[in-house]
Amino acid sequence: MIKVSDVRFAYGSGFSISIDTLTVTTGEKVAVVGPSGTGKTTLLNLLSGIVVPDTGQVLLDGEEISGLQDHQRRQMRASRIGFVFQEFALVDYLSAEENVLYPYRVGKGLKLDRTARDRARGLLADFGLGQKMRRRPAQLSQGERQRVAIARALVVRPRILLADEATGNLDPANKAAALDLLFAQTDETGAALLAVTHDHELLPRFDRVIDFSELSQTS
Amino acid sequence: MNALYLAAANLRYHWARTIVLIVAAALVLSVPVLTRTLLAAGEAALTARAEATPLLLGTRGSRLDLVMAGAYFTDDLPEPTTMATSEEVWDSGLGIPAPLHTTFTASGVRIVGTTLDYFDLRNLELSEGRVFATLGEAVLGANAARELSLGVGETILSDPENLFDLDGAYPLEMSISGILEPRGTPDDDAVFVDIKTAWIIEGIGHGHEDIIVEGEDAASAAARVVQFSRITPENEASFHFHGDPNGYPVTAVMVAPYDIRSETILRGRYLDAEGPVQAVVPSDVIDALVARLLRIAALVDTVTVIVGFAAALALGLALFLSWRLRAGEMFTAFALGAGRSMIARLALAEVALVLLGAALLATPVVIALSSYADIIVSRLVAFGS
């Protein structure tokens, strides 16, 4: 469960956002919409501990993120948060399987073992990429890359899944398929999903839609 | 291990860039080592040869030219002295002289006209055949025989001085009587002949048919003289020399004094700065040359450091730019829980792998070239000009 209260964060450039309150419960699927440049990505960075608020609290399962040391926040990100990026952010020199295992290669406190490998292969097989695990991103289609990116976000069984324009580069069929995968996996693991999107066609499928311009004050 | 794995995967994927980096780093690493190795080998080869040559006599002039021509058979020839210089040493009873005539070449290899005493003074041994016994016979150094693919019983032709100089030296075909054991010295790269054979090549001695017939004057007869271009048992007796043998030219005279006292007396005899002949202790000349080489080596070291620094900066820039291109990957890694130390380990692992690759590439090259350093240096020294 995520709980944000009275958070204020300002960049050195002067851009700042303020959020009075935001709660995402376990297993909930929340879409965040709003105009570009209003701080939606900053919200994801605050929730994942990439940046810490100047004031206020961000709680993940009751634990205050801003109170953690840097290495603790990294460990938390590695083990409890899954990211799906807009441009997929796959590593070009690694195969699909190694991309899925990338969090184990770089994430603090994660150990790459047989269980992790089996989990990665299982996800790729479930996503229809069982025959393409050895291929590099350049050898995959857009939809296939997105599925690899989703598998990478899910491989550590995160408690919260953050998706930043995760379907922005996909055609309608692949958008629906990607969302199906995300929903199915979050249903299976009970993870909360917070997805920033501009795609209004997908909004009816979420449990709740938050208009970020109403949620926060930016300056 | 994860950093190493990712670094290796990245380098493997960008293999062309990696090869360029590794080759560049290998060059930066190996050039100073090779330079040092060759300089050390050169110094050792020069010094060893000089120390094995007790005393050289020759026409007063450049001491270095005399030593290089007399001990290393280089192309820089001093003004010749005469055979009288060698005979005077014999007559003095102070040491054993070996006259050296190094003016000519055969197939690009230096012809050294000398006496059999030279073989004793240098402790040269034959691997096959025998030493020269008659005019026109030659003994080849080991390298010369190998490179010219010549063996005992075959022949070698001296190089003409100038094709258009009718009065110059004519090629002489010499039969090979023996091949020397390799010694790792300039002797390996020479063709040894009796000094009289060298004088025949120079035109001081020659052989021809007796062509004067009754009723003909000498001038008419000389016009149709056919000189022999090869010395055979049949025509050997016709070979003869003109003039006083003591006036025949020699490049240098190597002398092995019987003892220190003899050496001191000999050197004393040639101290007169106005005298036509000088006595040179090769190790003195070479020590001075080596000192200069070491100063040059210090300069080379400085240049190498500067070039190496520039190359390291260029390599660093290449890695930095490549790292900038991977900013997205680094952010992803950070978002997935990587710390700065992981990012640093990734960068270090890539640098370490490139350097390891460079070392693996440079090491066999350096070892191979170092093992041939003596040969390379002997070529540079013996045929340096």
UniProtKB/TrEMBL annotation, chain A:
Residues 2-218 form the ABC transporter domain. GO terms for cellular component: plasma membrane. The keyword Lipoprotein applies. Keywords: ATP-binding, Hydrolase, Lipoprotein, Nucleotide-binding, Transport. GO terms for molecular function: ATP binding; ATP hydrolysis activity; transmembrane transporter activity. Its EC number is 3.6.3.-. This is Lipoprotein-releasing system ATP-binding protein LolD. It comes from Pontivivens insulae. The lineage of its organism: Bacteria, Pseudomonadati, Pseudomonadota, Alphaproteobacteria, Rhodobacterales.
UniProtKB/TrEMBL annotation, chain B:
Pfam families: MacB_PCD. The keyword Transport does not apply. The chain crosses the membrane at residues 15-34, 296-323, 343-369. It comes from the Bacteria. Keywords: Membrane, Transmembrane, Transmembrane helix. InterPro entries: MacB_PCD, Macrolide_Exporter_MacB. One of its GO terms (molecular function) is transmembrane transporter activity. This is MacB-like periplasmic core domain-containing protein. It comes from Pontivivens insulae.
